[in-house]
C-alpha cells in the first residue's frame, strides 16, 4: 500500500513562508519594532509582542545545534525513507528551525555549517538543509 507523506499545514500566517519555499526563496518574518527574525511564523513577535512583522528573504544559512537519526518514524509514510536525519539548525538570522538534513550521519558534526536545500517530495517543495558548499544530493 502506498501511503502519502503528510503535507505541511499552511495557515494564513504561514502561507507566505510556504509560497516562498515553492519558488526557491527562504524567507522569515522580521519584527518592525525590535528588528529580530522569528521562526516559526506567528502573528506576534515572541520577543516584544509587536504585531508589526514583515516577510523578508533570509540567508538560508545556519549551524547545526543538534540532530537525531530516525529509524522508526512517527508517520508510516516516512518509514521507507529511513534511516534519515532530522536536526535543529540555528539560522544565521537568529531563530532555530527543526528540519530534515540531507547529510550522511557519519559526516555530521556539532556546529557544522549548513544551508537550505529546496527538495521536492511528492510535488511539495520542502526546506531541507545540506552541508554548506555540498552539491545538491
Ligand atoms: Zn519584536
TrEMBL record:
Residue ranges constituting the ChsH2 C-terminal OB-fold domain according to the UniProt record: 55-118
InterPro entries reported in the protein's UniProt record: ChsH2_C, ChsH2_Znr, NA-bd_OB-fold, Thioester_dehydratase-like
SUPFAM superfamilies per UniProt: Nucleic acid-binding proteins (SSF50249)
Bilayer-crossing regions: none
Domain of life: Bacteria
ChsH2 rubredoxin-like zinc ribbon domain residues: 18-53
Protein name: Zn-ribbon domain-containing OB-fold protein
Species assigned in the record: Lentibacillus salicampi
